[in-house]
Prior knowledge:
Order of helices and strands: EEEEEEH
Number of helices: 1
Distance between the termini: 28 Å
Largest sheet: 6 strands, antiparallel, barrel
Amino acid sequence: MxxxxxxxxxxLQVDAHLSDMDGQHNTVTQIIDISRHGVSFLSDHPMxxxxxxxxxxxFPACSIVxxxxxxxxxxxxxGTHGRYRNDAYFLSMPADCALKIxxxxxxxxxxx
Length: 112
């Protein structure tokens, strides 16, 4: 394995939203990839580095909403449509959510 990529990321394109740690100030976002320790997502504005949020999302074909605490590590403008790519590290999550992420990362991709 490439030493630069110790933790495997997998494409995950789902709508989600972020809230502050108190569950307020919701922001709509789209997840673009996920790993055991973090997530990348798009937003309409830059996210403050070092800020903590709660990410609310569901895996495809699943109605269960997962709630994970994260901290933003990186935010950069991408493309020509005023979008920002944000990378974040998971701070905490319920054990069942961690298992769902592990299952998603190790299961074969669904064919379209």
